Amino acid sequence: MKACLLFVVAVMVVAWPTGDSFARQEALLNVTAGQMPTDTASDGATRLTLEENAELGGKALKVVYVPGDSFGDRVSKITDWKQFIALEFDAFNPAQENVTVTLTVKHRRTTSYDTRVDVPVVLRPGRNSVKIGMDEMLNVNGTAPDLSNVSRWYIACDEGSAPTLYFGDIRLVGDDAPALPAPGVGAGAARAYRVTGKIGDMPVDLIVTPLGGGSAGNPGTGIGRVTSDPARLARIRAAEMPPITGPVPFDTPEADAILSALEVFPPDNPWNQVVSDWPLHPNSAAIIDSIGADKPMRYNPDMGFVLVPPDQQRVEVKIVDYPGESDKGPFPVPDEIPIEGWPVNYQRHYDGPSLTLEDVQRDKLGRGGDRHGIVVDPINRMLYEFFVLRRTDDGWQAAQASIFDLKTNDLRPDGWTSADAAGLPIFPAVVRYDELKRGVVEHAMRVTVRNTRRAYVSPATHFASPHENEDYPRMGERLRLKQDFDVSGFSPEVRAILEGLKRYGMFVADNGIEWAISVAPDPRIPNLHEELRQIQGSAFEVVLPPR
Predict the structure, then answer these.
(1) pLDDT tens-place string over residues 182-202
(2) Which of 36, 91, 457, 541 has the fewest CB atoms within 10 Å around its CB?
(3) Integer-rounded Cα radius of gyration of the chain
(4) How far is CA 130 from CA 32, 86, 202, 245, in A?
(5) What's the farthest any 2 CA atoms get from each other in the chain?
(6) Among 107, 299, 226, residue whose Cα is nearest residue 543
(7) What are the residues whose beta carbons fall under 8 Å from the beta carbon of 168, sequence distance 6 or more?
(8) In degrees to the nearest 10, what's the CA dihedral of 13, 15, 19, 22?
């Protein structure tokens, strides 16, 4: 008997009016609550303090600039600015002359100076109330930015000036739902609606905007939407997280139960976005050819991990190569942490005496390599990843360490690497046994290619190439399996991967052998090599997020 999943939906739908007043406000920088910026471009040369300011009516951020410097957030606390109407802040200029500052916004499609937003703002002597409309934010080259995925923002002074300025809260403002065009213009007469009630046992309070391309009675096709799968989210949230009292290896039934209940990043995170109807990249064919249209797909049984309890003892890890682009410890690294490839890769390719995990941790074979190490704290939803991790007589050391908060959409700081060359997390991309057993991989995967470009695209934050060839993929480039590719002749495990590649795609994450995705080195996963090699690069295409 086939099992059926029934969603019982009880909702109330009401028209949501729009007006001139901004009912909704969200703080980018909550100065009133004592929040400080996370970044100054000159690493602290510009002085930032919180002070009472009578002109602004309360607490203010005092900024004593050095010439040409800036303050802001390396990782924007709010990534989707497109849902708002304007950015607002109050500022006090104590000088007797005008001061010009520039709001800079970097976003998903920012790859150079020309593809970032720069909006100059003139602050007159005294108090200023600034409002910058989202429609005023254009890239330096005049193209439209991707304000639905902002990665970083900052406010800079001119190279030749060093002003002292005071700033109040910096906020995004807008109606509770965006106004749609008037009848006969663009998307037609459709309006936004508020939906309240329950989906199953989950209470919901949603703003729903009909898709463009039609009228209220014919809302259009909605081709090219940024969406996630509500059924996936409902399944995860309905699962019960088992108690975790000690480290749990990834290749165990205990780990399967924990992972089935673990929500990895918010629903709208790039790793969870459905890309099956996204538009093609205009240079898709050339990029696929540069990777190898006639080369086979492959996989690496490489990225293992360990699950730890929330009270896992923290230890120091000595960072030896990238301390300036690493997060600070101590880290919850248990003795049981696997090194990349353990155990399957070692079982398949090492013919000598039996190895122990500690032998591999200490690299007794002298194999070297990337030696990734991954720790997941499912209760706190935190992720810790290491590059070239090694156990020594003096403790753990690594070339690089990254921390990811799985409860947020936060990215690595712009320009920073991670344990992956693209600055991306690894764990969310790994194909796991519990997913294959369930029959579908419900997230984007990671893929390596031999030649990448000296550029990256969000959610990547780092490149690792000297090449400027625009036919090479950028780090973070998103590829998917073509929708008409026939998966019917493959095993259930491979079908689960291929359906996931059609639905969620994969990110270019590192330089390496072409078309190789990462699969957990779990002895319970059968050898997928021969089946995957039947698929050539020509079966894939490059996509872009819809505007």
Answers:
(1) 333 333 333 344 455 556 666
(2) 36
(3) 25
(4) 17, 10, 40, 52
(5) 80
(6) 226
(7) 31, 32, 56, 58, 60, 61, 89, 90, 91
(8) 10
